[in-house]
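Handout, tutorial session.
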Amino acid sequence: MTQPKPAHRSFVTIQALRAVAALLVVVHHASMMSAKLRHTDRFWENGAAGVDIFFVISGFVIILSAAPLAQKQHPARTFLLRRLRRLVPMYWVVTSVELLLTFVAPTFTTDLRGSPLHVISSYFFWPTYIDGGAGPILSVGWTLNFEMLFYLLVTLALALRVVPPVRFLVPVILCLAASSHWAEQGHLGILTLASPMLLEFLYGVLIAQAVLQGKTLGPIVSCIFIAVAPVVLFTTVMHHGAPRCLLWGLPAAALVAGSVGLESFLAPRIPSALQELGDSSYSLYLIHALLLPAIAESAARLHVHGEVTIALLVWVSVLVCLLCGELSYRLLERPLLTAWPSRIPRQTVAANS
């Protein structure tokens, strides 16, 4: 184990991983669009592991951002306001656009099958059952339901003055993950979130706690983790009922831990473009859920066919999503962050998720 610099500094490697995770999810959904156009059910499933990387990153950065608040006045309120400021405005805007499109151009969006209660639940991160599923209006919003639950757990730990918060989070998350056995259809929405996937946040929490104690992986172990983790993520087949928190969650945790361990070596070598993509990753993650269904529908109406043509369309779609994500970040997300009423200064990269 090595001694890092103070834990509150920015982690450029984590910012780069955020970019990689968002890009994986976009390519995953673009491959699903390709499968639809080719009338097949074969697509690149492993790109969905970007979500697992996001969850581990979230556990990591949230603990680092919460640590300085533990001994201050109103830590829970301060923390929750910061997280709401970061998560809510952009999500509400994109959700509202998706909702509007379902009325003016329903064929160009994902299928909206909900009631007014479903709409309200989507805005307030509460899962509802729609034809056996629990998806919000914006398809990718299901992951934000997990994010918000995690934020609330950290808020509760701060409100109870549990120091460090890991002492509260470990038993509570373990209990929630274990209770997933009773989370059957028809139960309250919160049971939908009582999932083993919560363990992925816990992986990040434990990595952050180690950093706060001045410990990171050594360079050799970090290199092994960074080399092996992507191989596992990109080759492991996820069957129905498989423990995703283990098959993809643990390699994602290894990737984060290895990146943190090599921060001092990798940070100066990470391209600025990748860091910029990390900045805009949240916008990219939300916006691509609007763009790809519209592109798929347009391609279907134009009778796009042929393996080469569809493959080209997929990569053009990914580039369009990247461009629109960057524009959304600069023209919408950053102004929304500025406009959100708060006396709290913006945090470093390590505190943003």
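The second record follows below. Compare its token runs with those of the first.
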Amino acid sequence: MWEENQENQNNINEEKSNKYLKNLLDELEKTKKEIEEERDRTNAIISNLVDGILFFDEKKNISLVNPKAEEILEIKAEDVLNKNILELTKFPIFLPLIDVLGAEIRTLFRKEIKLKENLIFEISSVPLSINQKRIGNLAVLHDITREKLIEKLKNEFVSLSAHQLRTPLSAIKWIIESLLNEEAGKITEEQKELLIKAKISNNRMIKLIDDLLDVTKIEEGRYIGEMTLTNLEPIVESSIDTYKEEIKRKKIRLEVKGLSDNLPKVMADVEKIKIAFQNIFDNAVKYTKEGGKIFVSLNYDEKNKEILIQVKDTGIGIPKNQQERIFTKFFRGSNATPIDTEGSGLGLFLTKNIIEAHYGKIWFESEENKGTTFYFTLPVKESYAEYITKEFY
């Protein structure tokens, strides 16, 4: 009897064990199927992306190339898979890619590269990790050839239009000045007043045309001229002198520090740096109300080997929800337009590009109705040389 019961119990246990094993196998099969389906979905997405995808494993070898990357780079995946990035030099089209990524596969975001004539891409490279362990780098190639062509055509149109407009505007300026100098005969006070207004409007148009031409030069990479070793103090001082009458008229309290500190020299395109400072200082004067205050300072940051220029005002400030757009083309704050209806919205865009072309940085702090402080830095001679070396290599 006992043996019979034991046998029955063994049968029951075996049946439970088989059932458990079957459920486990079913679950494993289900999981495997789900993993395969997820893998197939991922592969389908990667294969049908309109951007080229390259994946470099932890050894810097290519372990994935999607069909779009094959098309862009005019290669077959099997020819490059498991090859180190430095082994790809035998493929000429890879050379611009190798230059920007480097042997270590740098992290990049939307770096523009020209793979060949009329084929321009933006490349982004990001490290990938699983459970905080780095498994490699993903590089994405995005075709911007069409956008660059449209941009080039737009710039050419703006440049041509601006040049065509500047010629008659210059002629009008000469005629107005001749009339004001009474070279064509005596004029009345009323006529003189009208001519002065016409001259002011004409000068504003010429300034706008010049700004548009500067924008096209920036976008074509030919804006910055000859770099010379220079002191910033006289540039700042002469720029401020230009606004003395306006500052006096508005009873603005002006405080300037650092002009006599014998600061180190910087490498600069003097004309462009003057434009950059004037654009900032002009806004401070223009948007500071009567009786307000403007503070300007120049300081040498010995640690970072750079000159820090600060322009602080008690003006209208920049609305918080508009601050991220302050350096974009044609942007003007909603509270600035009623004060100065003639502004083009190009001044700070030009300023940012000038400063960055000199390997400097620009930023600001602002609170609406309380004022704005702009800061920008320029590397001194020794530091500037270091930037040039880094860019070259």
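Points raised in discussion: The chain has three domains: 49-143, 148-219, 228-392.
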